[in-house]
Amino acid sequence: MEPITLKLKGALLLVTLLCVSSASLQMSWELLPGGLTVVSKGLSGVWGVNGYGYIYRLRTMAPTASGSRFRGVFTFSQVSSGNEVWAVTKADLIFKYEPLTNTWQQIGGALIKVL
Q1: How many CB atoms lie within 10 A of CB 54?
Q2: Average pLDDT over residues 93-107
Q3: CA-to-CA distance for 111 and 54, rounded, in angstroms?
Q4: CA–CA separation, 9 vs 82, rounded Å?
Q5: Nearest C-alpha neighbor of 44 from the set 100, 90, 88
Q6: Do residues 89 and 33 lie in contact, with contact meaning Cβ atoms separated by under 8 Å?
Q7: Main-chain dihedrals φ then ψ at residue 55, nearest 5 degrees
Q8: Helix (H) or strand (E) segment spanning residue 25
Q9: Which of 4, 47, 78, 113 is deepest in the core (most CB within 10 A)?
Q10: pLDDT tens digit sequence for 27-67
Q11: Pairwise CA distance, residues 82 & 41, whole Å
């Protein structure tokens, strides 16, 4: 079996795989510049925030895994992936990701961290 390598341009991605067969699985890791400071994996996929406060989402439907960056005026410090995706900016503003419009909706209030 060939090693599986997942690359996320501009960030380091750590992945946990669950193997249900008895076949051996090898993984190789490649350090890419940029680095993610936060990684969250849930029902809404794998999301991360890099040192510049940009949010990335892992795209796994392509032949090779890749990341897409969300552009905007805010810089984020936290992101959490579950049934929904929530994020907090460096100014403690709260945002919820809207997948149908591919946008972030600001929610009233302030938070320091989302889990």
Answers
A1: 19
A2: 91
A3: 18
A4: 23
A5: 100
A6: no
A7: -95, 135
A8: none
A9: 47
A10: 566 565 567 888 898 999 889 898 888 888 886 655 555 56
A11: 7
